[in-house]
UniProtKB/TrEMBL annotation:
Official protein name in the record: Uncharacterized protein
GO cellular component, one term: nucleus
One Gene Ontology term from the biological process aspect of the record: chromatin remodeling
SUPFAM superfamilies found in the cross-reference section: ARID-like (SSF46774), Clavaminate synthase-like (SSF51197), FYVE/PHD zinc finger (SSF57903)
InterPro entries attached to this UniProt entry: ARID_dom (IPR001606), ARID_dom_sf (IPR036431), JmjC_dom (IPR003347), JmjN (IPR003349), Lys_sp_deMease-like_dom (IPR013637), Zinc_finger_PHD-type_CS (IPR019786), Znf_C5HC2 (IPR004198), Znf_FYVE_PHD (IPR011011)
Species assigned in the record: Populus trichocarpa
Length: 541
């Protein structure tokens, strides 16, 4: 394996460990399940995110995000209807007993403490507060519900939970400034955000381009091999030496090991997540992105600069490289370096997506699923992997390992770079819609295989498997986004929906058409060997 392939394999391992989920980045994750505390009179509000805009000495300052309580009055949705009200720190801090000073319609900020949320709200209202801000003792947000046996629920002020870091910032403002005021409102999210539509198109379009490139390369290699066999019957070349030198075929063992290694890598990321480790991932991503972007550009430009693409020079450490590759490489390296340096700016997502898409297309060109059996094993393992690390890992680690790693909660940064992301431009809450590379790569391996089979079997578009596989993937990803919105924005394991749609469609269609045995074992149509036909014709002569 040469250096370029080695870099890609290392990067892909990091990518697959973050099969991930589509989600939107917000100011905190709501971690409390309220299934055991159903709505009842006085405690029947819907949970909504609340913006807390601050002013320090009359100057607009930071904005924080919290979650409204099940009890109390509802919060206005429009900013123009929300008043600026003075913020006061509670005394005692937890407000589990009546505040020592009367409040003149102030917003009171309290610590979470050990008493009921409704007790704090009743005490604050009795003291004259107009709203209650409760600071959580953790980074996450917490849904404030009512106890099953509570009856004192006649609360007429809104209550909002803020994460711990927001509370620390507000306390610092109150202690170092003479006047702090806040404005509370809860703007409504659009039913469908355009960012999710574009993210869906990016994922489907990436697989579409990669599949056609993979199928075209496979067909060209098959034609070249057939010509060599016909030209030299006595010198039959090794199949792996003709046209497939740059292709890596996965087998069932490597498919299982791939997911196992990805799990180990994910745990390492979880345990060692820090600023320097994110920086290491950025370097790794840039190496893979440079290789991917270079491969894609060389493939495109070689149609116009054929001579430069076919003329090679031996470079120490890297081996033989074409002149076109040497010309393109500086641009690709510069592009990745500029993105890495400025990746925190608002438009850096464009560079990240370009590098990511180029990497995915290149991997789908190089790594092949040879048959349906290997594809089934790979996707089934990834299906279980996704479910375990998003949902089941909560039982072992007390938090979702996949979500923590993808968000970069312990790194002090915005998360790992192995994601496609688009800003939610029309969402008043901002943030990004994201999807992990693995949610494109793993199904893409099977879909690219379907098009290679269709072309080698000379199937028409209607009679082929590729259109149905693409349709199934698109529907699976669409269902994922529907589930994401129904689950209040919680991260969803996309392969939970994509794998049944894509793999199920392929298996059912192969069974119905009678091709399942060939697809499962051989992965390519049965064709008579060219040199056997030639030898038979010579015997007749």
């Amino acid at each position: 394996m040469d250096l370029q392939k080695l870099c890609l394999v290392i990067t892909v391992t990091a990518v697959i460990s973050l099969v991930c989920y589509p989600s939107s980045v917000t100011a905190g994750d709501i971690v409390h399940d309220d299934n055991l505390a159903p709505k009842k009179p006085g405690c029947e509000n819907d949970f909504v995110l609340v913006k807390v805009q601050t002013w320090v000495d009359g100057v607009e300052d930071a904005e924080f995000v919290g979650v409204g309580a099940r009890f109390g009055t509802t919060i206005v949705s429009k900013e123009k209807n929300a008043n600026q009200i003075r913020l006061t720190l509670s005394d005692p801090l937890d407000c589990c007993s009546a505040p020592k000073h009367k409040l003149d319609g102030d917003v009171i900020m309290v610590h979470r403490g050990h008493c009921k949320f409704t007790t704090k709200a009743n005490n604050a209202e009795a003291a004259g507060a107009s709203a209650l801000l409760i600071i959580n003792n953790q980074k996450e947000l917490y849904k404030m519900v009512c106890e099953p046996d509570e009856t004192d629920l006649d609360i007429h002020i809104p209550a909002v939970m803020l994460p711990q870091d927001a509370g620390s910032s507000l306390e610092k403002m109150l202690l170092t400034n003479s006047s702090v005021s806040v404005q509370l409102y809860s703007p409504r999210r659009p039913l469908v955000d355009i960012a999710e539509v574009f993210l869906w198109l990016m994922a489907v379009g990436t697989i579409l381009c990669a599949s056609y490139w993979s199928a075209w390369s496979a067909r060209e290699a098959a034609i070249e091999q057939d010509k060599l066999l016909k030209d030299a019957v006595d010198e039959i070349p090794n199949e792996k030496a003709v046209g497939f030198s740059t292709v890596v075929d996965i087998n069932t063992t490597s498919a299982v090991l791939f997911v196992v290694i990805a799990s180990c890598f994910l745990v390492i990321l979880y345990k060692l997540m820090s600023y320097w480790f994110i920086e290491l991932l950025v370097v790794l991503f840039c190496i893979g992105g440079v290789e991917g972007l270079q491969t894609c550009l060389v493939a495109l430009l070689s149609r116009w600069f054929k001579h430069a693409g076919e003329s090679y020079i031996k470079v120490p450490f890297f081996g033989p490289l074409s002149y076109l590759t040497l010309a393109v490489a500086p641009f690709c390296i510069a592009f990745a370096v500029v993105w890495a340096v400025y990746r925190t700016v608002s438009f850096a997502w464009i560079g990240q997506d370009i590098l990511g898409i180029a990497l995915i297309i290149t991997v789908l060109q190089i790594v092949h699923v040879p048959n349906l059996k290997v594809g089934t094993v790979l996707l089934s393992c990834a299906f279980l992997y996704d479910i375990f690390w998003v949902f089941v890992s909560k039982k072992v680690f007390h938090e979702s390992v996949m979500i923590v790693v993808a968000r970069g909660d312990r790194s002090g940064e915005d998360g790992i770079p192995m994601l496609l992301k688009i800003p939610r431009l029309f969402d008043p809450w901002g943030g990004y819609s994201i999807i992990g590379f693995g949610d494109i790569l793993l199904p893409g391996l099977l879909i690219a295989f379907s098009l290679r089979y269709d072309w080698l079997a000379t199937k028409s578009l209607r009679a082929g498997y590729f259109p149905w596989a693409m349709l199934a993937y698109g529907l699976g990803l669409l269902v994922t986004y529907v589930a994401l919105n129904l689950m209040d924005g919680h991260g969803q394991p996309a392969l939970l929906y994509i794998v049944p749609f894509t793999l199920g469609t392929f298996l059912a269609l192969g069974k119905k058409r009678g091709d399942l045995r060939v697809l499962w074992t051989q992965g390519e149509p049965e064709t008579p060997c060219s040199h056997v036909r030639l030898q038979h014709s010579e015997e007749l002569d």
